[in-house]
Design goal:
Arginase, Chain A, alpha/beta, 10 helices, two-stranded antiparallel sheet, 357 residues, eight-stranded parallel sheet, 10 strands, single chain, binds zinc ion
């Protein structure tokens, strides 16, 4: 059923449209394998989106159902093999004797000759496309990944319709997924997909405030000067994804200088985090982006069970205020945030900061 047309943009700051799609519930693996431990319940659960949605609705923000989109915007970022793996890999894995939750046991590795050969076995496929054990896949994962992209692309349409800010309640997160790999709870990289679509209209900035470095987003735009990636995150010497996120990663070729990493020491609080956010925002402003995509994670919060920074609710509200002061059309897309009792309030704090300016 088609959703209602995108409402007319208000002329004054007010409620922020929240784009949703309940199909994310289909991605519900029984457990996660993280840090050598089986986590049951998992960290990346459907209740994350439910809590945020309930809080935003209670705060008066209107809900907008996502419109369906075809594969074209996904194909503009992701390798056809990765798309096919997400769509068909689980059924093939089960038919070949794989367990109820698809988690790789054997990874391709650069230490093998030529980086390892592709195998015809469906049991090898997750080790080819997935880079960690903490991203379990099930029959409904593809549906959820498509839904998250539909949310992001509906947000793009809302910006084009004149909204100055839209909140896309995407789940699972996306910024750890690259063109031809996925991991870190992420399936399709919805922020990268939205940014590539918006880049047709002019230069775009992605401001990544999730506590983890967005290695996937960085890789997608590594050689692309049209999309400027700036990330504020915990030092990868302390936190996932460990193998990227340092200041010397600046992009290559035509993309050199369009990638900026601002890693922060373990335990950084509001003062240090907001100073880095200010630096990131100043750089986005200076480069003249015509639209901004924010990879909005709440796992930099002090209360987060897997983050390592100490940002408060007031810190997130201040970040919302600063983002509004950029005065660019802005698409906020949900990334991480795992403190179920806090993430709804933090989403409201960001939007209160934005609308209060
Ligand atoms: Zn994160």
């Amino acid at each position: 059923m088609p959703s209602a047309p995108i409402p007319t943009a208000p002329s004054e700051p007010g409620p922020v449209p929240v784009v949703v799609d309940d199909r994310h519930h289909a991605h519900d693996p029984a457990y996660e394998l993280n840090g050598g431990r089986v986590l049951e319940p998992r960290r990346e659960v459907a209740a994350r989106a439910t809590r945020i949605r309930e809080a935003l609705v209670a705060a008066g923000h209107p809900v907008l159902e996502a419109d369906a989109h075809d594969l074209a915007p996904i194909e503009a970022v992701h390798d056809p093999g990765l798309i096919a793996f997400l769509r068909e890999g689980y059924d093939a894995w089960r038919a070949a004797g794989g367990g109820e939750v698809m988690i790789p046991d054997t990874f391709r590795s650069p230490v093998w000759a030529r980086g390892g050969r592709a195998s015809a076995s469906p049991l090898a496929a997750p080790g080819w496309w997935v880079f960690d054990t903490c991203t379990p896949l099930v029959a409904g994962s593809y549906l959820a990944a498509r839904a998250a992209v539909d949310i992001a692309m509906t947000g793009v349409a809302a910006l084009r319709a004149g909204h100055d800010v839209v909140y896309g309640l995407t789940r699972p997160p996306g910024h750890h997924a690259g063109s031809d790999y996925l991991g870190g709870f992420c399936l399709f990289n919805h922020a990268a997909i939205a940014a590539r679509a918006l880049a047709a209209d002019g230069p775009v900035a992605i401001l990544d405030l999730d506590v983890h470095h967005g290695n996937g987003t960085q890789d997608v735009f590594w050689r692309d000067p049209q999309v400027h990636y700036v990330s504020v995150h915990a030092d990868p010497d302390h936190l996932f994804p460990f193998f990227s996120g340092t200041t010397d990663e600046v992009g290559e070729g035509p993309g050199r200088g369009a990638n900026r990493n601002l890693p922060l020491p373990h335990g950084t609080d509001d003062e240090g985090w907001l100073a880095a956010v200010d630096e990131a925002i100043a750089e986005v402003d200076a480069r003249g982006a015509s639209a901004v995509v924010v990879s909005l994670g709440f796992d930099a919060a002090a209360a987060d069970p897997i983050g390592s920074l100490g940002v408060s609710a007031a810190g997130f509200a201040a970040a919302g205020r600063r983002l509004a002061q950029l005065e660019r059309p802005t698409l906020l897309l949900q990334e991480g945030g795992y403190a179920l009792e806090h993430i709804g309030g933090l989403a409201c704090d960001v939007l209160a900061g934005w609308t209060g300016r």
